[in-house]
Write a structure and sequence with these properties.
Low-confidence stretches: none
Protein name: Pyridoxal phosphate homeostasis protein
CATH class: Alpha Beta
Family: Belongs to the pyridoxal phosphate-binding protein YggS/PROSC family.
CATH superfamily: Alanine racemase
Pfam family, one: Ala_racemase_N
Largest sheet: 8 strands, parallel
Strand content: 15-25%
Number of helices: 9
CATH topology: TIM Barrel
Number of domains: 1
GO molecular function: pyridoxal phosphate binding
Function: Pyridoxal 5'-phosphate (PLP)-binding protein, which is involved in PLP homeostasis.
Bound molecules: pyridoxal-5'-phosphate
Structural class: alpha/beta
């Protein structure tokens, strides 16, 4: 696995996707998802210039943080149990999986400063996926007004595991539509300028549909376990 080479190729693909829809590639940030690889491989991503790392389990994040520390900007991207919040809160810069009020309250309580959160929405309709139902998303975000340490910087979704490009595209479009509604509400605690969407198999479509953070594991650092 040549991480450096992968980064170059992924950046080229992002640039081409941006060209197709007239976006600036600088507006798309790459998160290297390191959940399937060793800390040594995660460090190769840093050496290749990717400073944003994503983990989906608290223990995975804690283990890698012990070695890498604040050389990386850490993103928590997996479903988060409330009782684990205290273990990761001082290590992560972003939480991509805010999907319930109890979790928001716990983050608010444990945080020592504002935490940048993405509200996770299930725009694919798949039962197995985490995240709020689209219809519940706006009222959920409005209910966060009372929690001063929560800043909703954007929305996050996971596309279904399908080949059909139209299904993927619709999933991402739906997230963008929700984002527009929230932006128009001008909630001071929810600027909602960011969209976290797109993974190894679908990131070009996500970029075409407005992703500002893409979360790439396999195509960037590979899969060791
Ligand atoms: C694993 C994971 C990714 C990356 O998946 P790849 O298909 O390996 O790129 C992105 N987002 C979340 C939430 C994940 O759990």
């Amino acid at each position: 696995m040549n991480v450096q080479e992968n980064v170059i190729q992924i950046k080229e693909r992002i640039e081409k996707a941006c060209e197709r829809v007239n976006r600036n590639p600088k507006d798309v940030k790459i998160i290297a998802v390191t959940k399937y690889v060793s800390v040594e491989t995660a460090q190769l991503a840093l050496e290749a210039g990717i400073k944003d790392l994503g983990e989906n389990r608290d223990q995975g994040l804690i283990d890698k943080y012990e070695v890498i520390g604040n050389e990386a900007t850490w993103h928590f991207i997996g479903s988060l149990q409330s009782r684990k919040v205290k273990d990761i809160i001082d290590k992560v810069a972003y939480i991509h999986s805010l999907d319930r009020k109890s979790l928001a309250k716990e983050i608010n309580k444990r945080a020592t400063q504002k935490v940048k959160c993405f509200v996770q929405v299930n725009t694919s309709g798949e039962q197995s996926k985490h995240g709020l139902q689209p219809d519940d998303t706006i009222s959920f975000i409005e209910s966060l007004a009372e929690l001063p340490n929560i800043e909703v910087i954007g929305l996050m979704t996971m596309a279904p595991f399908v080949e059909d490009e139209n299904v993927l595209r619709d999933t991402f479009k739906h997230l963008k539509e929700l984002q527009n509604i929230i932006i128009h509400k001008r909630l001071p605690f929810a600027p909602c300028t960011e969209l976290s969407m797109g993974m190894s198999n679908d990131f070009e479509i996500a970029v075409e549909e407005g992703a500002t953070y893409i979360r790439i594991g396999t195509a960037l650092v590979g899969k060791e376990y």
